[in-house]
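Researcher: Here's a chain I'd like modeled. Treat it as a single chain, no partners, no ligands.
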Amino acid sequence: MEKALQLGDISIANTAPMILVGGLNVLESEALALETAEVFKQVCDKLSIPYIFKASFDKANRSSRESFRGPGLEKGLQILAAVKEKYAVPLLTDVHEVSQARAAAEIVDIIQLPAFLSRQTDLVVAMAESGAMINIKKAQFLAPAEMQHIISKFLEAGNDKLILCERGTSFGYNNLVVDMLGFPILKSFGYPVLFDVTHALQMPGARADSAGGRRKDVTSLAKAGIAQGIAGLFLEAHPDPDKALCDGPCALPLEKLEAFLTQIKAVDELIKSQPEIDTA
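Model: Modeled as a single isolated chain. Structure tokens:
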């Protein structure tokens, strides 16, 4: 039986209208966070898409020591709180250490288990015990069916407010692919599923000191993912992706957001208006 989550007036379920978790890859400044949140909020309100703002306060997993990581926990949570206060939107951010889980959960509504850390049991338990809703990123090195072990850890630690998030799978060197047959497997666990389309566009290690990406393909990939009948989309955008301090090659240009979401919502509505066909 599918579990539906409720976040304020937002219903998160694979059978409900799509939600959008969107924002910046990393917090570069408070001004940029507010600017980005304003555009997302305006577009989502116009299109009647339930919206959750996301951004990271620290990108601990970077290719180079010189890469920008973000403002850190304390300052980052202050910026996120400012976004929430000004625009009255729910928040999502990721944590990387046991000590960050409870502090983040005091400010944000959903805390995220990063893909590369998704098997870290101590982190899973700390996140579960925070009481927050959890977004579990599927690691690039895991098969969809292996997510059951991570789910079990959360349940054993007393938290069933779980969302599963696809973000691509390692395919040789410097490449990710998204297996559309993985979505039914993730849905079979009974939890809402999101598709992180922009991270799925990454080409890890493809540049001298950072990941490359395939920004031009974001619409095609998002349409394919949302057509699987899932809870929603996870998306990063930037006013000037070429100047973004992290994952710019994957980010949607912010000015394209309305046109992009108009098409994605149309696909979601079409798919969810049709009965599922049992071909087993």
